């Protein structure tokens, strides 16, 4: 039910934005590739495979709208983000994720901590739970894909 959906507010932990005016300058864009960015990302609540997600406007959040994790191509970004609070009992937890320059195998792991001290690890593998954003291909039976235009690609 739509009235049961609660968004986790990530505004305090996002560390980058989708738009990038200059490639390779270390200043902007989630991949720092200049025109090959997601500047046309629609803001606000958008559906992906029937699941609503709240896209944060960078111009209303100190220039930040997404979480960028560290990698060989982005050594300046953090290796982990900790302390995101869900703060309530949930039946389902959905993640909207993408990657760039993804290698084969395990890409990263979500670690969910419960109040009772237990935890669950959710491993994310290339071409199974995640794929390179610019080379993505729809796979039968896999999670939904949200196609976004950029200066180099119009879906």
Question: Briefly, what is this?
Answer:
The protein has 155 residues and is an all-beta fold. It is built from no helices and 4 strands.
> What structural class should be given to the helix and strand makeup?
mainly beta
* Poorly predicted regions: none
Radius of gyration: 16 Å
Q: What is the overall number of helices? A: 0
Strand content: 15-25%
Report on this structure:
With 155 residues, this protein is mainly beta. The chain has a two-stranded antiparallel ribbon with strand order 1-2.
Properties at a glance:
155 residues, mainly beta, two-stranded antiparallel ribbon, 4 strands, 16% strand
Annotate the secondary structure layout:
Elements: E1 44-48, E2 51-55, E3 106-113, E4 119-125
Antiparallel strand pairs: 1-2, 3-4
